[in-house]
From TrEMBL:
It holds the Pfam family DLH. GO terms for molecular function: hydrolase activity. This is Carboxymethylenebutenolidase. It comes from Bradyrhizobium erythrophlei. Residues 69-292 form the Dienelactone hydrolase domain. InterPro entries: AB_hydrolase_fold, Dienelactn_hydro, Dienelactone_hydrolase-like, TAT_signal.
Amino acid sequence: MNVHTQLTSDVVGLTKAAPFSRRGFMTASAAVTAGYTLAAGPVRADVIMTSTDGLDVGDIKIKVADGEMPGYFARPKGVANPPVILVAMEIFGLHEYIKDVVRRLAKLGALAVAPDYYFRKGVDLTKITDIPQLLPIVNSKPDAELLSDLDSTVAWAKAQGGNTDRLGIIGFCRGGRTVWEYAAHSSALKAGASFYGPPVDPPNVPGWPKSPTQLAPDMKAPVIGLYGEADTGIPVATVEALKDALAKANKPAEFKIYPAAPHGFHADYRPSYRKEAADDAWNQMQAWFKKYKVLG
């Protein structure tokens, strides 16, 4: 299998989910109309919808080295100098679940922004209907470019009056890997929260020089890792190995592994959603960000 089309551990977790009944799920056309993505599979009918009341929200353009990167932001109305939280998306593009997470963070008092860092491929990932089509696009994103895009997003947030002295990052699935990578890159970052981000990369992916576990000695910010025990793509042993590597490097980190929770347990639009684990993980993230002064 070509390195660009191989199943990475986050994708394995997505494609080996438990069986489900189609009762309680949107039709495909309703899901697309609501702004979700079909490549991730069926969309639950009772997804979480966070109101824009009290928020400024919208689509944005972020200046990057070779053009303008699309993104989505939300912030509390009338609040000066809010903390900044980056949202690193899954492989499915900037769809409604990620936008809702941005709004949830704004309700906590942050200027939250999700950059669409796959934009250079010229396709809307939310419109792609199957994972094999997605993989060559997302797997070819070089880490150096990804990290530069995130730095550009921080610069955009600072220019909008965000307090980048209180900078956090949160990410899910492939975006969870991004959290670990950015924590090893950015000296400005105060804390990160990785939801089921793969600790280990597949071998020989061009542009991915080091996995999160290999980067453990380079971590510049504390990260909390939130994982599912029943994740078929991320064995608990690999999470424990990352934990051990961070401990040996004397890097502050915490981990919580949720019993019986699959990959994507926070993704309230997918069959993998587990409310109890998702709610607890969200609370763990908030406590972590408060501990490190990202959130007040």
